[in-house]
Amino acid sequence: MLSPPELSEPYAGLEDLDYLTRLAEDAVARGRTDDFYAALRRSEIPYLLSHHAGDLRELVLASLAALHALGTASPAIALGVSQHMATMLAFGLSGRLLEEHETAGPVIGALLQETLAQRLLIANTTSQGGGNRIGTKGSQISPEGEGFRIDGHSTFMSLATEAEKIVFLTYAAGGALVGVVTDADTPGLEVSGELLFGDHLALADTRRVFFDGLHVEADAVFGPDPALNAFYALQLVCHNLCVSALYLGGGRRIVEEVRRHGRTSMLPSGAPLATSDSFGANVGGLVITYLNAVDLLLSQVHLVSTLTGGDALDPATAGAALLRVSTAKHGVARSAETVATEGRKLIGARAFMGDHPVGRIGAEIAFAALGPATEKLIERNVGLKFLAEGT
Q1: Name one GO molecular function term (predicted).
Q2: What is the mean pLDDT of residues 120-132?
Q3: CATH superfamily membership of 123-224
Q4: At 273, which helix (H) or strand (E)?
Q5: I want to staple 368 with a disulfide (CB 3.0 to 4.6 A). Which of 56, 61, 318, 333 is the partner?
Q6: Distance from first CA to last CA of the chain, Å, rounded?
Q7: DSSP labels for 281-336?
Q8: Per-residue pLDDT tens for 10-52?
Q9: Is the CATH code 1.20.140.10 the one for domain 228-388?
């Protein structure tokens, strides 16, 4: 019942998924992800674009299935992996748009070729906000010799110490967005040694990135160009989809742990707690909440996988898709939080003892409302759009 076929099919490239999910469990127990990431790079999971470039729907579903499974072990680890997965998914969905763009096409094409050939991992970030003043721009790019110089900082970035390549957005004079691709070990780029989100999300490897005179060549930069706003929006679409899948994986694990609790805990009569009508009703509520959230996520797959099936993607269409997918992610995050909260109540104090999966995963799920955009930002965008419509 908890295995929707779209998220459990044996998609090409996912042959090592069960093994990697077990390694993610081991990584949680050890507090280290080195073995997990070594195995991830050996697998095909980060490189699904090689297997599904001709079928965008399968590319989306395979990516979501991988993150959903990893989320059952640790939403935090899956969040780190989602940096790369969402980036590659956006590249796959933006194929035609990028191919037709004079600067973005060659830059992203070279990045993809290098990533697939050398089995690299990619992280991405922006320079919007991240400070105490809303709307501030964290970094800026300016000409320097035959290339460009970047100074400032990013908002934050997961997969920060594992990624070999970084794609980020910065700002030119006048506020126009510019895309940059660079190696993670380039002089002038510093990944903070301090984790941004402490214990609960430590295994996501989320840190701030600083730019101190980072020099990049002209062939590593794309934009500014308003036509690329569609690509930037599509990146956020993919991040919202991927984040939804991994937190739903955490929700599924909690439902499974509640079932295990019901079967191993006994009533005064000696019968399993799972035979109680009231416990069954409570568990049924969790299952329904989870399955409804899965349906909400999967309802977005057709929309996203057909975005670039016809004419070249335009910013307005991509923006409308981002609003819809963000709204769906909002609902999925709320559902995952509900499952976590109610699951803890059913298990009781044991959920907080030691490293019980329900307590740990519930704490990781608490971050679902915060990214890629906070719930209140999504609500504001939807509310203002609604208020501007009609009479």
Answers
A1: oxidoreductase activity, acting on the CH-CH group of donors
A2: 78
A3: Butyryl-CoA Dehydrogenase, subunit A, domain 2 (2.40.110.10)
A4: none
A5: 333
A6: 45
A7: HHHHHHHHHHHHHHHHHHHHHHHHHTTTSSSPP-HHHHHHHHHHHHHHHHHHHHHH
A8: 999 999 999 999 999 999 999 999 999 999 999 999 999 999 9
A9: yes
